[in-house]
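User
Class, as today's exercise, I want you to study this protein, comparing sequence with structure tokens, and judge whether sequence predicts the tokens.
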Amino acid sequence: MNNIYLDHSATTAVRPEVLEAMWPFFSQLYGNPSSVHSYGAGPHEALERAHAAVASVLGCRPGEIIFTGGGTEADNLAVLGVARAVRTRRPEARLHVITSQIEHDAVLNACRQLEREGFRVTYVPVNRAGFVELAALESALDDETMLVSIMLANNEIGTIQPISEISRLAHGRGALVHTDAVQAAGVMDLDVARLGVDLLSVSAHKLYGPKGVGALYLRRGTPVSPLIHGGGQERDRRSGTENVPGVVGLAVSLALAEGERATEVQRLTGLRDRLIDGVLDRVPSAHLTGHRTQRLPGHASFYLEGVTGESVLVNLDIAGVACSSGSACQAGSTEPSHVLTAIGLPPEHAKNGLRMTLGRENTGADIDYVVDILPGIVEELRSGIAAPV
């Protein structure tokens, strides 16, 4: 029985090196990092080293890193925290936020909350390949636009956005820029100066690190109102006793990924292209979603005419292949993917998505197996031999 995991955009296994680095902080070095006695000294030093390690990858100062409870919290702190902070400085303005139609729900739902609070929000469209329409973005910018939040790479279709150009347009009108880099971390350059962003979100569990821990880069001088109030940890920007094992795991996983990035990206890109070519060649009426080359190196996504994504997933799982139909956060939803409808697919096709995302353990043999079995699964579903879900 094959056991092939192709859902790395949903989550990843914790690397042994990461687990080893985390383990002492569950047992021997368990002190509260805010304590002044010796039990707190080791955790406090580890926390400071973690800030420095993450900052090194992002090309920023350690004090510009805020550890959070994950990517969702980092996105919420960026969108809600910055918007609310700016409003205290400009209470007379009806402040404006711009995002895209294909953002993760962590950003979209934060923006909807801002609308309930009286902010204006523009959801700019994307083209068929998933790129933000820059003309629409530029047209939407006005004197009250205070934040633009556009993800660096999309979780469902893998398309990589031109963030540096987006930043240039936004900064030209005096707006701050946030990018959700959760999917890009470990496989793309996250230097915040080159990207031109003021805020950037990452999450450990997409990087072979632990779940429940993330980080937000907040450029020095950028206003933010905390979402969590308490003892003033993280320089009074995110209160609560720090998850020291988690932030150690995040720092180690990000550093390891950055050190291997060049060779791993080359390997994953080759496997990705082999998978895309095989599926498009052997599965009739299979269509790639997202841009063919300007996409994450380990990301292949399709819609398959005549079969639902969920039906394909179940049959692939029976055959020993784990993948997804889109965002893991939307698993089980009967609604069509908002990302696929945004790129122009009708609702009946937007339910037929298939996402296969590759990782460190995948091999060419894995790709060949998937390409061999997928055509038969799709044919049986279309003919009614295999029961649809």
In short: The radius of gyration is 21 Å.
